[in-house]
Amino acid sequence: MTFVLNEMLDVVKNGNGIDSTCEVVSKEILDKRLTFLQFVESLEEILTSTDKDIRLNGVKAFVTVLKKLPLDFFIPEELDYISQFLCERLIDHHSFVPIVLIGIEYTVQMKNISKQMIVRYFNTIMPHFHCQSQLQNDRNTFYCILQYIFLNRLDDLRFMGPDFLYCVISSMDGERDPNNLILLFRILPQFLRNFPLGHLAEETFDVIACYFPIDFYETEESKITRDELATNLSRCLTCVEEFSDFCIPLALQKLEASLKVAKLDSLHLLKLCCENFDPVKIKFHIEEIWRILKMIIMTDSDDSSDEVREAAIGVLTALLYSLTIIKGDNEQEQLSSFLDIILKSSNRFLLDTQATLFIPSIKLLCSVGKTSNYACLKIANKVYLILLDKSDVTRSEIVRIIEAMGLITNMCLEMCIDLSSIPGLEKRWEEICCYFLLYAQNELPEIKIPALKALKISTKILTNSQRQNYYCIIITLIKSDITDSIRKETLSCFKEAAKYFKEEINREIIQFNLNILNESNDIILKSKWLNALCCLGNEEYFYTLISDILTANLSVKQAETEMTLKCLRDLVKNNENINLLRHFALKDGLLNFILTTWINGIKNCANFNIFRNKIILEDVSFVINSVVKVINTSEQLQTFNQFSQYFNEILNTKLNYKTLSDIQQGIHSYMVILLESILNSLNKNIELKNVTLLIENCIELSTYSENSMCSLSASRLTATLINKYIDGDENNLLIDKLKFNLENYLNVSSIYINNVINQISWITKSLSIKGHGKMLQWIDWSLNLLADPLYGKMMTQCFKMLTQTDDGYLNKECFCSVKLLYRQRIFCYVIEPLISKYNTMPEPIKENYLISILYQMDGNTYVTLSPYFSKILPLLLQLLSPEQDYVLQSLQTFCNLLESKTPVLEDYLQSFVPKLLNLSQSSKFMNIRIVALQCLYNCCDYSLIKLLPLKRQVIFELTKCLDDKKRLVRKEVVRTKSRWLSIDVLNDDD
Predict the structure, then answer these.
(1) Among 30, 265, 635, 821, which residue is least crowded by beta carbons within 10 Å?
(2) Is the distance from CB of 541 to CB of 502 less than 8 angstroms?
């Protein structure tokens, strides 16, 4: 013990290694070989030294040991001594303040700290500690002390009243550090709500309000954002009722600012005022609030951007909610008067349907109407009567009237208002839906589409006779040759009607036209009806009907089968239909029918135009895979067990493809496609027997099959099985064996090289995304294969595959193992070997490495690329030439880097801007010219000092491009040239 203390004293006097020594001392104290008192007594000589630096070291040792002891270590008597000691040290010398604050921060959290000790701390702090004269970290420590006090011990200091409140507000007065401000803004509401403000309410508000609106520009190093600061500041300004008299005028005053960000902050603050303060307080400012909101919402000027206008409407909505809860006899009168003011302000726009602000005014009124039933009825009465009484309207006016009436109808339905209950519409409400029905039959798309949208909104309030008319319109449009946009709206109406009137839809539309689906030979017409039926896939009522009709149309006719599978493919892609897919997986459901039909068709060598048709098989495989993916594990296992017997030869028998008959080869080649569709999305918790045998059989099929679709499916299935089931060192021998076999295949015959390379690529990706121990060995092999003149170019696809994410295969949705940041790890491993080989290989071979470098760059961010960028950039610049084969790929990589404002590119502007200008004029290919121009456009994100020397040349060269023969290129030229012309013009937002 004596040795430890003596050693500690020497260290403390020197001031070096205090932390490590204190670690030893604290361990001794915790192990009870030393007491804290003995430790403090040993510091007596140091703590009483006349040299302040030595005393400071003593305090550091004291606090360091203190912090290494548990929060419940000290009894109250010991803590009393500690708190007294820290208070004395706080006023000893200003250099002691930082370490003492750390000690106070830790001790206030201790279990046995008493109210008296906390009061002692603040009685010492208030007269002797000036927060804003301290460094940022020390101020932060003090704010952390306040944070703990506010959350846990505020009652202990309540009796101090205004003195403590003044201490808090004076400590933050003038604070400029954003990290400290965000901490204060987060903790102040809790404090202000629970501590009496008294006569200091206005001064407290002023200290906080001086930061409004937030003037903070984010940088890449910023840990917080301007929006975070602004949001939390607004919460502070509206957290207590005492602030209402100051906060509302502040928000209104700042609304006069010209900066967009200040307007948005002020509108957000005003909205919080309406939501948090007593409505009676808000009432006194109604006229001024509306005057400013009207200027923003009801004027068509550049100052009123859509974002600002939406925010203003949000304030108005909050204001109206506030009005509806004002207590007193004149509540309805107050709300009615304000609604009259709003309607009067909107009236001139409502009367002129061609006015720019006609629809914005309608949207404003809809927002107002959604605040209360009273407001909704009053607005609906006014707008409906104006619109219904219009006559001799032009085509453009009809479109606007339909849209407006649709919006008002939607408002009423959201507020559960019966149209017949609206004053003045008791006998006319049916005219509204009749108006929509009439114009839904108009031949002009610009009228028909808004009418259909309005009908969709109004579906559930249509009368019985109106619905019959509605169904006729839907039937006519489904059968007709119409544009995609009209068909989309028609099917939306069909879905909406099916939501509310299922039996009627089934009887009046589906059953009435069922003969078309069953008997018609018109494939196009059948396709239209089948698509319409499939759009009801989210309604359980129609599940069996959809399944039966799809099953019936998967017939012996090729055209009908292709059409049905196309509809089915679109149906399974839609996430809304997941429950329908689960219905397909039921016993004797559609999944069972498809698998049974295609297994039998393939095994019996039936109609090749259907069962061995590539397009049909791809759709069948996609549908099976999609259904298996969404069903649960037990249902997946049941499906696999049900059909595994049909794949017995692939699953349980060693295949030798070359010894099979032509018929058997064909059967296995197509059966493996179906097997993959079942196993691809199988949960990896489902155990498979003979996985190793199945993998070897898949490689056999992928290698020797002349069917490209079979080879691809077998290769993918091999990769999937390895990813899901091949784990641990005990399986390394299998991976090595597969590599050895594939190497032999490459050496034996050149006929199957493409298949073997494809298999190598899939296995390499499977191991890489899984993070398997053998992955680097396979990646090294792939790097070496790039050098082969026979198949090196094919091998580049492996490096493309390693960066790409496939929606259908080898992803987490298919229950595969995917390591986080696997792309970045692969890139960092391969990029230097690729660059090195590119620089040393002969001309025909080096291209393979160049292509692989481009593929590896694609999909990786600048953060990953930056350490290697100086080596990569010369290669990219070399490719920016019209005669290069991979110029487009290089350009797209450049474009992505420029869009992300890659910093290092700024230093090379002089090098690549002339090359981009040359490509934008000289390339024979339109896509290259367009991407080159997009790159030039994105260059303008860099600093003005780098761009100005290039501006004259760029504008001169771009002028020549204005004569390009392609319109899309000319459009891009105008956009790019305009941006370069304005690079030295600062916007308000800047």
Answers:
(1) 821
(2) yes
